[in-house]
């Protein structure tokens, strides 16, 4: 049984980034100890995994009546972009459904399972539930907390520096690690930088990978006083790639040129003469943004850390040593005065990326 659910999980992972605000889901249909149908949610607005698996079985000429379906997330029971999956399962004559995890979406949250049971379909839950929940941790966090799951990313040398004293930082890591960052951009709904990074690097913050056309994230710039040049890459391409400028500037006249260029101006509260990040995250959650990948500098990282808004940290380490007194660190500010006050996390994975390392950790 675990092997069937593991295959469904492996299928679900293929939808990473493409499902956007929907969870990643995989499904397999088993009859007489043979897999007769496979499917996964391939893209937002497309067929859900259960319907894909039923379609696959049908196209292969298999009769699914009396079969067992393994699915990584509770089947939906409401109308959205597609009809309810429970309806398709019932009509197909599936006899048993094994579900990895309950869907935390209030529109589902056990209702899908109950609907199947009401139709005398046997349902079991909990098989590889932790793996399924981890796969959709960003979706789950948003559904539970109504705010985005925030991942902080930075690259540093072996001695913990993000740049030389001159400000030069190109490149700490090699191409493989930098390309991996672009996959992370594809895998998150939004990407965030501060105005310092926007002015220094003039980034496009899009997905650029050879032979891979990923989805660009929504771009968010924390710009307290509206210093972002109208000639910047972010503003010039705002009509092609959604761009949100978070500011405390409430003057509509100052907003007009940015709005004409296609930017969304999001006015938020101020805190210590900067964008109030808690207020910003709340607003972004209200807009339905479920995940944010932060590629900011040390000041934005420090502010997010102090506000308790970080759920995950990606640390890329290049095998270089800069040394010296005044070099940049990933997180600035005053920091925590005592070790027992430090943000604690647990290391989830350590992944070699060519000559570099990626440490992925989750905040406790």
TrEMBL record:
Residues given in the record as NADP(+) binding sites: 155, 169, 171, 197, 201, 224, 297-303
Cofactor dependency: Zn(2+)
Key words of the record: Hydrolase, Metal-binding, Multifunctional enzyme, NADP, Oxidoreductase, Riboflavin biosynthesis, Zinc
Co-factor: note: Binds 1 zinc ion.
Positions of the CMP/dCMP-type deaminase domain: 1-124
Binding-site positions, Zn(2+): 48, 76, 85
InterPro entries given in the database record: APOBEC/CMP_deaminase_Zn-bd (IPR016192), CMP_dCMP_dom (IPR002125), Cytidine_deaminase-like (IPR016193), DHFR-like_dom_sf (IPR024072), Eubact_RibD (IPR004794), RibD_C (IPR011549), RibDG_C (IPR002734), Riboflavin_Biosynth_HTPR (IPR050765)
Annotated PROSITE patterns: CYT_DCMP_DEAMINASES_1, CYT_DCMP_DEAMINASES_2
Active-site residues, as the UniProt record annotates them: 50
Enzyme Commission number(s) from the entry: 3.5.4.26, 1.1.1.193
Reaction(s) the record says it catalyses: 5-amino-6-(5-phospho-D-ribitylamino)uracil + NADP(+) = 5-amino-6-(5-phospho-D-ribosylamino)uracil + NADPH + H(+); 2,5-diamino-6-hydroxy-4-(5-phosphoribosylamino)-pyrimidine + H2O + H(+) = 5-amino-6-(5-phospho-D-ribosylamino)uracil + NH4(+)
GO MF assignments: 5-amino-6-(5-phosphoribosylamino)uracil reductase activity; diaminohydroxyphosphoribosylaminopyrimidine deaminase activity; NADP binding; zinc ion binding
Family membership: In the N-terminal section; belongs to the cytidine and deoxycytidylate deaminase family.
Xref: NCBIfam families: eubact_ribD (TIGR00326), ribD_Cterm (TIGR00227)
Name of the protein in its database record: Riboflavin biosynthesis protein RibD
Organism annotation: Aerococcus urinaeequi
Organism lineage: Bacteria, Bacillati, Bacillota, Bacilli, Lactobacillales
Name of the gene this protein is made from: ribD
